[in-house]
Write a structure and sequence with these properties.
Elements lengths: L3 H20 L7 H6 L1 H36 L11 H15 L5 H23 L9 H23 L3 H7 L17 H11 L1 H7 L3 H6 L4 H23 L5 H13 L3 H25 L8 H25 L1
Helix pairs in contact: 1-3, 1-13, 3-8, 3-11, 3-12, 3-13, 4-5, 4-6, 4-11, 5-11, 8-11, 12-13, 13-14
């Protein structure tokens, strides 16, 4: 019973944040208005509910992606935005926009996911040729690769007059999420379910190739499956809401610090914590200059950068000891 109380309290806290997200916005909607005003109810169902659901699914996707990548690469500093995966997804969407601007969302998500997978494989290939004297080198390599791909994307966008589209798409905000445009992100729920079922395999893969192979795990197949699922989640999330920096870095590390490295046991807490963090950052962005709005990626980037620096200094302190 003692173990259930913290989980129940955490769920209640997240539900309270979800309710706050549903009730905060430029259009004044309260509970009595939902019961008596058809216009308010319609606005609530068209805008508020899709936005909050997108927040929940995007948070789950990016945090779980970060957790799986950290296990597969055996490094706590990696997640889609520190390995170049998100930048590759952006390049894929930009090239598709140039070649087929009328492509439906599912095609855009597929292309973004394929480019994200290619970026993840390229990151691992480069990582295998770099002498790693510190865990901090891994995200630095990823950030450098992402910077190169991002520069290419920026150059192509500038030459094709798509800079404004690229900036808007990469802003990582939920203000444009409405009913009819966010539904594909529901696929993330299926990805999280698959990751939960295969969590033990990813835990074994995190022990290293030799150990995992000795225990009978098909290491390469597990690695590719994990990267494919992470790339799919990253591609879908990037197309629907843009980039969410450091989300896959903050929560998985905090959970692992408290509960260890068992992926299956941590998934529930990682999803719960990431949803809470993203909603809090979103509420801050919506309330600071109300009724205007700061993209959640800006608030999340500030928090994530601070945590990343703190983790780097902590790792450096351990290395010196």
């Amino acid at each position: 019973m003692r173990r259930r109380i913290p989980a129940a309290l955490a769920v209640l806290l997240v539900l309270a944040l979800v309710c706050a997200s549903l009730l905060v916005g430029g259009y004044d909607i309260d509970v009595p208005a939902l019961l008596t005003d058809p216009a308010a109810r319609n606005m609530f169902l068209i805008s508020r509910v899709p936005r909050t659901l997108a927040l929940v699914f995007a948070a789950a996707a990016m945090a779980v992606s970060g957790l799986i990548m950290q296990m597969l690469v055996q490094n706590r500093f990696v997640e889609p935005t520190t390995t170049g995966t998100s930048e590759w997804a952006a390049l894929g969407v930009l090239l598709l926009t140039i070649g087929a601007p009328a492509a439906p969302p599912l095609v855009r998500m597929s292309v973004a996911s394929l480019f994200a997978l290619a970026g993840s494989m390229a990151f691992l290939a480069v990582l295998g040729r770099v002498a790693l004297r510190s865990q901090v080198i891994v995200p630095i390599v990823g950030i450098m690769l992402g910077a190169v791909v991002g520069a290419v994307t920026l150059y192509v966008a500038a030459r094709t007059d798509l800079l404004q589209m690229l900036a808007t798409w990469r802003s990582g905000g939920f203000s444009s999420v409405v009913r009819g445009g966010y539904e594909p992100i529901w696929v993330v729920a299926g990805i999280v379910a698959v990751l939960y079922v295969a969590a033990d395999r990813f835990t074994l893969a995190g022990l290293g190739r030799d150990t995992a192979t000795g225990l009978g795990l098909p290491y390469r197949r597990t690695l590719f499956t994990g990267l494919a699922l992470v790339s799919l989640a990253t591609g879908v999330t990037a197309v629907v809401v843009g980039f969410l920096p450091f989300l896959g870095l903050i929560v998985p590390n905090m959970v692992s610090l408290v509960r260890g490295d068992d992926v299956r046991k941590n998934l529930f807490w990682v999803v719960l914590g990431s949803v809470a963090l993203l909603i809090v950052c979103d509420l801050i962005g919506r309330l600071v200059i109300f009724p205007m709005e700061i993209p959640v990626s800006v608030v999340l980037g500030v928090v994530g950068a601070a945590v990343f620096v703190a983790m780097t200094l902590r790792q450096h302190g351990r290395a010196r000891v």
